[in-house]
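Encode chain A's predicted structure.
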Amino acid sequence: MTSTRTPAERRFMTSDGCELFYRHWPAPSAGPQRKVIVLFHRGHEHSGRLQHIVDELAMPDTAFYAWDARGHGLSPGERGYSPSLARSVQDVEEFVRFAAADSEAQPEDVVVVAQSVGAVLAAAWAHDYAPTIRGLVLASPAFKVKLYVPFARQGLALMHRLRGLFFVNSYVKGKYLTHDPERVANFNRDPLITRPIAVNILLDLYRTSRRIVSDAD
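Encoded structure for chain A:
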């Protein structure tokens, strides 16, 4: 049976004064060369849902870090909201640098593993900041979000101009994410799952994804 590493629960201050919650799994058998993996959760989720990745990777010589993005989990802010996707990408830059410094590692010793919306943030960060990290793993990046309603994006943009900020509820359910019934049940009963997403972030997600994919070559 996989052993469970217990994380420390801490806070990280961004450059604009937002105190983000994060979890840190220290390396129980770290050698002279520091190794760091920074995890970024899926949209609507939080760092508490990444414990199984730390355990299943079974890398005792590696420190892991994972945040709760703005408006998610135990971090502050209106649920599902960030001032902009660019601000969230800057948060990624600051958090990865913080994680490296906190573990006394170099950027070249850091690997970033990101999922879904977190993977879009990480991809935009790699594109815009060109970090000198060891590796980047993007798991099912949400470069295209299906809204099911014809012309939904154009309608949301118009409503945003007319109404200002509002929120769109996600259709994502646990059964769409995994075939493991225990993890489906865990997702469905998790009180920290954030189903709304702010319209400015949803529209920024489309624009940023289009820019990153078009520049990929």
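Helices lie at 51-57, 85-102, 116-129, 152-163, 181-189, 199-214.
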